[in-house]
Every structure is written in structure tokens, then in C-alpha cells.
Write a structure and sequence with these properties.
Length: 307
């Protein structure tokens, strides 16, 4: 693999973190100006589906809908929808950087549940990393931090559902990643259509007051949400996932930057300590996993060579 492809993969991965943070900042802003949650979710997935279809249909046609397991696609789509609801709700209570740092427990949770759900070996360093990461979250939400407990609860819920997304994504590895991305949008849109009537009058009242700027923000939520995931897919096509994993933590930096520029929110010293613990535990365990996998690969190669 050339250095150019690796650099391109890293660049795409970092860009994806900014896209996803922009999506969340747009959603947070819209909810602050009274756009109901269900209306926000409906538009988020409507724009998502339109964008993904516009990109994939010309190349792959209706085959893009074909999946090895439609049941698993629906379950993953519902899990992603719950994640979206949880994140936007958390953002309505918490600064963006702190909310993002809390739900970034998800990668550590995946490593812990992998032995049961993915059949992977249980390793002590995974549990240690998860415990250390959770201690980082406790530092972020410490007494006196002024963080709303409801927002913290929703951010933790998002961490759990994001971990579930990772598990179902792994189980759907036989499907085209763009197929999974499309089904994520379709399931979210269909459920969004069902939920929207529960906040119909509030939605109409809010939308009737919106001008061009607010409608651009609505489009941004779906546009940057889909774009972020598409950039991730492209990044993994150019560089190994183990190499790209640490760069996903740039999303916390992006969230802190946007939170400061837009709302003047900036994590205090102890919040940064907690954020550093969460990020550090994730990066260290990724490095340990990468080293272990390389050792296993070398052992397999030696066994093959001796045959």
C-alpha cells in the first residue's frame, strides 16, 4: 500500500469527523430555535436517502438495495435511529465537546462485548481500557461540572447504541457498505414518517417561521450526516481500519472547535483531562490490538511456510 493512499485515507477519515461534527452542530442549533426532534430526524434521513441514491443509483442501479440479511439491515437501521435520537437529545442539554467525548466510549464497549457477539477472543487489556475510558467520563461529568444529568444519560445511551451499530455492521460485512448506508437511511426515514405526526403542529409552526438560513441548516444535517459516513467508507478503501481508528478521535477536537466558535463553549481543564483519558485509552488499546493482530499474522505465515 503506497504512502499516498495511506495519507489519502487519513485525510478522508479526518474530513469525516468534521462532517459528522458539522451535522451535530447544525442539529443542535435547529433544536435551540425550536425545531422539534422528530421533525429534525425526518429531514436528516430524507436528505440522507436522496443523497445516497443520487450517488449509488447511476453506478449500481436497484441492486444497491440487495442485502444478504434484510432483517439485520432493519435492526441496524433502528439502532442507528435510536443513536440519532439520543445524540440530538444529549446535545440539547450538553455542550457538544462533552457530549461527543461521552459517546466515544462506544469503541471501547465494542471491544468488551466482541467475545459474545462477534466470537472474538476476550483479552484483559480491552476490559482495562474500557474501565479507564469510563473513569475519563466520570472526570468529565464530575460533581461541579454543571452538566445536566439527563443529557449525560442520553450521551451514555448513544455510546451503547453506537457500540451495537458497530456489532451489526460487522455482521453485515458481506453486504456492500453503500447498501448498508442506504438501508440505514431508508429505515430511519420510514420510522421518521411514523414519528413526525406526534409533533406535527409544532413542526409546522417552526418551519413556517424559517428563512433560507434555517432551511440550509436542515439540509446540512442530512447532507453532512451522509457525507461523513461516505467519507469513512472511502477512507477504509485507502487505508487499514487499525491505522485509521485513532484519527476518529479528531471528532472531539472538531466538536470542541465548533462548540467554541458557535456557542462560546469550551471544556475546562478537568473536562480536557477526562477527554484525554477517553481518547488515550481508545488509542492505546487500538495500538495493542494492531500489534497483536500483526503477531498472529506472522505466526500464520510461518505455519504456512513450514508446510
Amino acid at each position: 500500500m503506497s504512502n499516498y493512499k495511506i495519507f489519502l485515507g487519513i485525510a478522508l477519515s479526518v474530513l469525516s469527523t468534521w462532517a459528522l461534527s458539522t451535522q451535530e452542530a447544525s442539529g443542535k442549533w435547529l433544536m435551540q430555535i425550536s425545531l422539534p426532534l422528530f421533525c429534525l430526524v425526518f429531514f436528516r434521513y430524507a436528505v440522507h436517502v436522496v443523497l445516497v441514491l443520487a450517488i449509488t443509483l447511476p453506478e449500481k442501479g436497484v441492486t444497491i438495495f440487495r442485502s444478504k440479511s434484510y432483517k439485520m439491515q432493519v435492526i441496524r437501521g433502528l439502532t442507528t435511529l435510536v443513536t440519532t435520537l439520543a445524540i440530538f437529545t444529549a446535545l440539547s442539554y450538553l455542550p457538544q465537546a462533552e457530549a461527543t467525548a461521552i459517546y466515544f466510549l462506544a469503541p471501547l464497549l465494542v471491544l468488551c462485548v466482541a467475545p459474545w457477539f462477534l466470537g472474538e477472543a476476550s483479552r484483559w487489556h480491552r476490559w482495562l481500557a474500557a474501565v479507564v475510558g469510563f473513569m475519563g467520563v466520570l472526570v468529565i461529568v464530575r460533581p461541579g461540572a454543571g452538566l445536566d444529568s439527563v443529557g449525560v444519560a442520553y450521551a451514555l445511551l448513544a455510546a451503547v447504541t453506537i457500540a451495537m451499530q458497530f456489532v451489526y455492521t460487522k455482521k453485515l460485512a458481506a453486504d456492500d457498505s453503500q447498501t448498508t448506508l442506504l438501508w440505514t437511511g431508508v429505515v430511519g426515514l420510514l420510522v421518521g414518517i411514523v414519528l413526525l405526526p406526534f409533533q406535527w403542529h409544532e413542526s409546522i409552526a417552526a418551519l413556517s417561521q424559517f428563512g433560507l438560513w434555517q432551511w440550509l441548516l436542515i439540509i446540512n444535517v442530512g447532507l453532512f450526516g451522509a457525507l461523513g459516513h461516505l467519507l469513512q467508507i472511502k477512507a477504509y478503501q485507502h487505508a487499514p481500519a487499525s491505522l485509521l481508528a485513532p484519527f476518529s478521535y479528531f471528532q472531539i477536537i472538531a466538536a470542541a472547535t465548533l462548540g467554541f466558535v458557535i456557542w462560546g463553549d469550551f471544556p475546562d481543564f478537568w473536562a480536557w483531562v477526562g477527554i484525554s483519558i477517553v481518547c488515550g485509552s481508545g488509542i492505546v488499546v487500538t495500538a495493542v490490538e494492531w500489534r497483536h493482530n500483526r503477531q498472529v499474522l506472522r505466526l500464520v505465515e510461518k505455519i504456512i511456510e513450514t508446510k
